[in-house]
Amino acid sequence: MWRCPSCNSRAVGKVGHEHYYCSDCCVEFTRRKTGTKVFEVADDGTLVALTEGQPTI
Ligand SMILES: [Zn+2]
Q1: Domain total for the chain?
Q2: Is the pTM higher than 0.70?
Q3: How is residue 10 annotated by DSSP?
Q4: Distance between the two ends of the chain, CA-based, in angstroms?
Q5: How far apart are CA 46 and CA 11, in angstroms?
Q6: Residue 48 within any structural domain of the chain
Q7: 9: CA distance to ligand 1 center in Å?
Q8: What range does the domain containing 39 cover?
Q9: Rounded to the nearest whole angstrom, what is the distance from the C-alpha of residue 41 to the centroid of ligand 1?
């Protein structure tokens, strides 16, 4: 089970290939070997990159 890299919640659902959504803080994030990227979902549905995390492997 993934945890949200933003709020550390477990309320994370998969929305696509390597693409997850946190229903607690309403961010989406992608997990790759190169690291975790967090996106904020704007009102019009576009994704705005917030932070780039450390590599997980
Ligand atoms: Zn979260």
Answers
A1: 1
A2: yes
A3: S
A4: 16
A5: 21
A6: yes
A7: 5
A8: 12-52
A9: 12
